[in-house]
Amino acid sequence: MDRFLGKEVQGSLLGKPEEQEQSTEEGATLGDDKGHTRKRPRRDPPGNAAHLAGPSWRHIRAEGLDCDYTVLFGKTEADEIFRQLEEKVEYFTGALARVQVFGKWHSVPRKQATYGDAGLTYTFSGLTLSPKPWIPVLECVRDRVSGLTGHTFNFVLVNRYKDGCDHIGEHRDDERELAPRSPIASVSFGACRDFCFRHKDSRGKNPHRKLEVIRLQLAHGSLLMMNPPTNAHWYHSLPVRKKVLAPRVNLTFRKILPKK
Ligand SMILES: O=C(O)CCC(=O)C(=O)O
Asked: Region annotation Disordered: residue ranges (predicted)?
C-alpha cells in the first residue's frame, strides 16, 4: 500500500460541478445528493435484498469506470459519527506520517490511520504493518456499508484532512494485497470536498488520449462505491481547495487478502 504515499496532484482541476448525471466517454461531473434518477445499484449483490429499501443511488459510468454514489447517513447521524471519529481515531505519527519523494522526506499532507481484522498485514512505506483492531465507530460504518451493498470488508484506511490545504495526490488503489474484483467503499464525513478521477491514458503533459476528468463532490455522510475495474483504469485524487476551512475524515473500506 505504498500508494498511500501517492504522488501529489498534478495541477488543480477547476470548475464548479453541475448537478447532473452523465455516463459518457467524455467524462461526468456530479453534484451532491440532489436529483437522483435511479433507485438502486446496477450490480445487485446476489442473495441480499437490503438495497431494495435503501437510499437512492447515482451511477457514474465512463470507459472502465464504474462507481455508485449515495448519501448513506443523514445529518444528525453523520455529525455524531464525525464527532466519534474525531475523538477515537489514532493517527500515524513519526516516520509513518512522512513520505519520501525523489529521495527527500516530506510530511504527508493529511493524517492517516489503518484499522482491520486481527492477523492481517499490509505493506506501508516499505514496512510490513498490522492494522489497529476495529473500534466501534468504524465497525458501525463498515456494517452499514456491508448491509446496504452486500460486500464485506476487513480493513479501513482513514484519511483526515484538517482543511482544504490537506489533500491526496493522483493514485490508484491497485495494490496486490487488495482482493481482486472487490469494490472499495469510500465514506466521507465533515467538509464536502471535490474528488476527481483521471483516466490513466489522459495523464501527463502529452497524453495520448483526452478523456475528461470526472469530478464529484463527496458530501458529509456520503458513500462512493468504486467498483472494479475503476482502479485499473482511473487515478483518483482529492485536490487542494484553499477555500475549504473545515476538516474532513474519509474512510476507505477494503478487502485485503490474508498473506499465505
Ligand atoms: O479522501 C478521499 O476521499 C480519498 C482517499 C483516497 O484516495 C484513498 O484512500 O485511496
From this structure: 1-54
